[in-house]
Amino acid sequence: MLRVSDLALGYGREPVVEGVSLEVSEGRFVSLVGPSGSGKTSILRAVNGLLTPRAGHIELNGGAETLGFLFQDDALLPWRTARENVALGLRIRKLPKSKAHAEADAWLTRLGLEGLGERFPHELSGGQRKRVAIAQILALKPKLLLMDEPFAALDAIVRTRITQELLNWVEREHLSVLLVTHDLEEALTVSDTVYLLSQGPRARVQSSYEVSIPRPRDIIASRRHPSFAPLLEQLWKDLSDVVGSPQVEATR
Amino acid sequence: MKAYVEKLWVRRLVSLLVLAALWEVLARLGIINPFYAPAPSEILRVVFSLFAEGTILGHLQATFSAALAGLAIGLALGIVLGFAAALIPLLADILEPIMMLLNAIPRVILAPLFVIWLGIELPSKIALAVVLVAVLIFFAVYSGIRDVNQLLVDRVRTLGGGRLVLLREVYIPSVTAWVLGSLKVAVGFAFTGAVVGEFVAATRGLGYLLQFAQSTYNAALTMGLIFLIMAFVLVLFMGAEAVERRLLRWRYRGADQDAGRQLNHSLKGRS
Questions:
Q1: Is A67 within 8 Å of chain B by CB?
Q2: Best of A73, A86, A97, A140 to disrupt the B interface by mutation (most B CBs within 10 Å)?
Q3: From the CA of A4, how many Å to the nearest CA of chain B?
Q4: The complex's ipTM?
Q5: Which domains does chain A carry?
Q6: Domains of chain B, first to last
Q7: Is the Cβ of A7 closer than 8 Å to some Cβ of chain B?
Q8: pLDDT tens digits, chain A, 252 residues: what are they?
Q9: Distance to chain B for A234, nearest Cα, Å
Q10: Engineering a disulfide at B200: which of A69, B111, B137, B218 sits with its beta carbon 3.0 to 4.6 angstroms away?
Q11: Which residues is A210 bridged to in the sheet?
Q12: Which residues of A121-135 are buried (b: 16+ CB within 10 A; e: fewer)?
């Protein structure tokens, strides 16, 4: 689905990542973890075309139309209603307004937001706004989801619930996912593969981990799987080695 | 009764009436010299007679024509130049220092120059109002585009939107919010331009009448005209606010303090 080879990225004269290679196969859930400044978000932006690579290759099956990007912030247009926000991508793809709005309403209903289509983003709770943002992306029927700590700003209960719902959807639709997160436990509960990036600048893939917890997964029950604790311990240890201190900010 | 007292506008109106009553009493008792500050009833009588005799209508027409034409042209010019400067860096290099200079000086000092260039009739008053409004709106648009939330730009781009979609979905709504936020100030500026222009040199208009009242030491007429101009600007100010609330209903509907904070975050936040 996605193959990144020897990728180098930077801002101005500052290099961020160098020689990064990773792969997201069809239907696989892959996470990127690493210290702050290791270029996790920059890699997602490069895959999505928002950042031009200095070197390396990004191969994507199906082109940019197969991508869906879920930002850390909900990034909804404040002057558009929930329905109009969800319909935005469909309208950009030339779907007539009435059809786009009907489709948007169907997605809002699927995500538990029935009857809220006329509300503006500031009239919705944080969790509801996040669901609108998810609906906006899923309405475009992406094959590969790029997610940049999408639920970091939500409280624990809402975060757990939305993560589980999205995971269920991803598993049911066999979507591929590349998730950036600081949360090692989250990475292990949802992913098939976790890539650990080294400390930036010039960060690279330090190591990768295969998670053998069977699917479909329950993100609470997954933490009790026999392989979970040893993997988390290993990941913790490796991340601490990367940062050079046990006082890492990578856990919640 | 208590519910009425708790309303802000009732408290403001009562405060004004108490102040006017106090002024009236002090003027009638001779504690305040009516030559400098005539009683409110005398001011009202003068204003009423201006309307009753119909002498003010021509002056009102002149001032309103200059102010509203200046407002309309100033808005259009400010928006066009602001967009152009934000989108064309070369133009920004030329326009920004000129606008900054015009913004830094009290722009009403240009009034005599406009009289020399355009004469003492309507065009010189419109020109002053245009300069006052256009500089304000230019910076509202220019800053609005430069400070547009990059996250929203990225959002639209990742959904497949090109330049036209970005303009329609992000830049124009974002700039509209900035411009409408400045509209109320622009209304005041347009009237300032018209009245000051008339004050400097004119044959009619509220500013001309004001200059006449001052030259004849007619405090009642001077104060009456000042209150009249304030009342008209207030009415237009309320009209501008109504337009703002209509066009920015996404900001005001169900808004509370938390929503305001979220809005600021949405408009100005960075990822």
A1: yes
A2: A73
A3: 19
A4: 0.84
A5: 2-243 (3.40.50.300)
A6: 57-268 (1.10.3720.10)
A7: no
A8: 899 999 999 998 889 999 999 999 999 999 999 998 889 999 999 998 889 999 999 998 887 788 999 988 888 999 999 999 999 999 999 999 999 999 999 999 988 899 999 999 999 998 899 999 999 999 999 999 999 988 887 888 888 888 998 999 899 989 999 999 989 999 999 999 999 999 878 899 999 999 999 989 999 999 999 999 999 999 999 999 888 754 444 443
A9: 31
A10: B111
A11: A193
A12: bbbbeebbbbbbbbb
Burial of B252 (0-12, 13-18, 19+ CB in 10 A): middle
CB contact at 8 A, A186 and A1: no
Strand order of the β-sheet with A193-197 is A67-70, A144-148, A176-180, A29-33, A193-197, A205-210
Nearest to A123 among B154, B170, B254 (CB): B254
Whether residues B158 and A79 touch (CB distance < 8 A) is answered with no
Residue of A nearest to B149 (CA): A75
Q: Is B105 helix (H, G, I), strand (E, B) or coil?
A: coil
Rounded CA-CA distance B151/A130 in Å is: 15
By CB neighbour count within 10 A (0-12 exposed, 13-18 middle, 19+ buried), where does A207 fall? middle
CA dist., res. A9 & res. A42, Å (int): 7
Closest partner residue to A73 among B248, B259, B271, by Cβ? Answer: B271
In A, which residues are within 8 Å of B262 by CB distance?
Answer: 121-122
The token pair at A173 is 């639709």
Please list every residue in chain B whose beta carbon sits closer than 8 Å to the beta carbon of residue A76.
Answer: 155, 266
